[in-house]
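Encode chain A's predicted structure.
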Amino acid sequence: MKNAVSRGAAAWLAAVLGAATLPAHADEADRPAVSSPLYRDECGTCHVAFAPRLLPAQSWQRVMGQLSNHYAVDASIDAARARELLAWLQAHAADGHRAAVPPHDRITESAWFLSEHKEVPAAVWQRPAVRKPSNCGACHTRADEGSFRERDIVIPK
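Encoded structure for chain A:
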């Protein structure tokens, strides 16, 4: 009964915060993404609005400080919006074992990401529907909601 009450309270909190519901066996990849309309508008229009918890605060600082050359793309936004977005990203950034800064501040180069995807054959990354590791939505059908649960994975042919 205690677990049911805890899950119910967690689901209620997630709903109040505008996040997806928590699964009964929530691990870090299953936690709902914290949502921000500003983040969705500024970042989610070009790529999946990656859950802020996937990078540590100092990585977000560098990513936001280099928007004119954001992984070879000019993603500049006005200074006020950039400050607001950075504050939000840092407030929801990785902690614990995910707080290690990955090479080049890339989620796909983090120890956590590499460990989670070690069983993915190299050929999968080359498929036209996948193309690259940062194309989360190719396999994670609910990536746009911040959900990376294994039961929601569909590997394209």
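The chain has six helices and no strands.
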